[in-house]
Design brief:
This is Reverse transcriptase zinc-binding domain-containing protein. The protein is mainly alpha-helical and 249 residues long. It is 54% helix and 0% strand. The protein is built from 13 helices and no strands. It is elongated and about 65 Å long. It binds zinc ion. Zinc ion binds next to loops.
Length: 249
C-alpha cells in the first residue's frame, strides 16, 4: 500500500478542515489542541471562535501541527472539500522528479540503455524507454501534475489508485494474465518474472524483450476498453503485440 500514509494524512486534514469550519467533532483531542494556545499562533482567527480555549495538548498535537503547517498554504481546506479531494491534493504535492537511475542506485543502467538502444523500431523503443522511466501517464502521474477531472483509479479493478506498480505488477484483476505471460516467458528463461526489476529490463535477455513489450503494451493499451477483463482477449492482444515487436525489430 504505497499511498497508505497519504490516506491517513488526508483524514487528519479533513478533521482540521471540519474544525476550521466550526463543525462539531467527536475528536476531543483535536479540539483541545486546535483551540489551545498553539492554535492562536497558527491561525489567529480561530482564537475568536465560540469555543473555549485550553492549554492542554493532546498526544497527537505534534503530528497535527506539522501536517497543518505543511499543507495550509497548499491545500484550500474549504467548506466543500471532500476527503477524497484532500487525498488527491496531497498526492499531487509529492515530489516526483527523481530519475530512474537515482531511484535505483544499486542497478547498473549502462547495460539497460544498451538494450534500449538496440531496439530498431522508434515507437517500440520509445514505449519501453517510458516503461523503464515509469513515465507512462498513469492516474497517479496525472494527479501529480495537477491534471484534474480525470478518474485516477485503476481501470481494471476500479479499487486502487492507478500507480505504475499497481497497474503493471500488483493489480489482482490482472493476476491470471500475468501468470500466463510469466509462463510464456519461462519457456525461454526459467527465471523470468514480472517484477519491478524485469520491467526495468534488469537481467532481461534480448529474446525476452518482445515478451516485456507485449505484456506492458497490452496492459497499457487495453485499460480503457470496456471488455478487457476477458483473459482470452488480453492473451490475443499480447501475442499480437509481441509478434508485431518481433516483426519490426
Ligand atoms: Zn487494479
Amino acid at each position: 500500500m504505497p499511498d497508505f500514509e497519504e490516506k491517513i494524512n488526508a483524514m487528519w486534514l479533513q478533521k482540521i478542515s471540519d474544525m476550521i469550519k466550526g463543525k462539531p467533532t467527536i475528536w476531543k483531542t483535536l479540539y483541545t489542541y486546535f483551540l489551545g494556545i498553539t492554535t492562536r499562533e497558527l491561525m489567529p482567527e480561530l482564537a475568536e471562535n465560540k469555543y473555549s480555549h485550553s492549554e492542554q495538548f493532546g498526544k497527537n498535537a505534534k503530528k497535527l501541527k506539522e501536517l497543518y503547517i505543511q499543507y495550509r498554504s497548499k491545500i484550500k481546506l474549504t467548506e466543500n472539500i471532500t476527503l477524497k479531494e484532500i487525498y488527491y491534493e496531497i498526492i499531487g504535492q509529492r515530489k516526483n522528479s527523481i530519475t530512474v537511475e537515482e531511484k535505483n542506485k544499486e542497478i547498473e543502467f549502462t547495460n539497460i540503455w544498451t538494450k534500449v538502444a538496440g531496439i530498431k523500431n522508434d515507437i517500440h523503443r520509445e514505449f519501453l524507454y517510458k516503461i523503464i522511466h515509469r513515465a507512462v501517464l498513469t492516474g497517479e502521474k496525472q494527479i501529480d501534475r495537477g491534471i484534474r477531472g480525470i478518474d485516477p483509479q485503476c481501470k481494471y479493478c476500479n479499487r486502487q489508485f492507478e500507480t505504475f506498480e499497481h497497474l503493471f505488477i500488483d493489480c489482482k484483476e490482472l493476476k491470471m494474465f500475468r501468470t500466463y505471460v510469466i509462463q510464456n516467458g519461462q519457456s525461454e528463461d526459467l527465471n523470468f518474472e514480472i517484477s519491478k526489476k524485469s520491467l526495468l529490463l534488469v537481467d532481461i535477455k534480448t529474446e525476452l524483450i518482445p515478451i516485456i513489450y507485449g505484456y506492458t503494451h497490452t496492459v497499457w493499451a487495453c485499460r480503457h476498453f470496456e471488455d478487457t477483463l476477458n483473459l482470452y482477449k488480453l492473451q490475443m492482444k499480447y501475442h499480437k503485440d509481441k509478434e508485431i515487436y518481433r516483426k519490426y525489430n
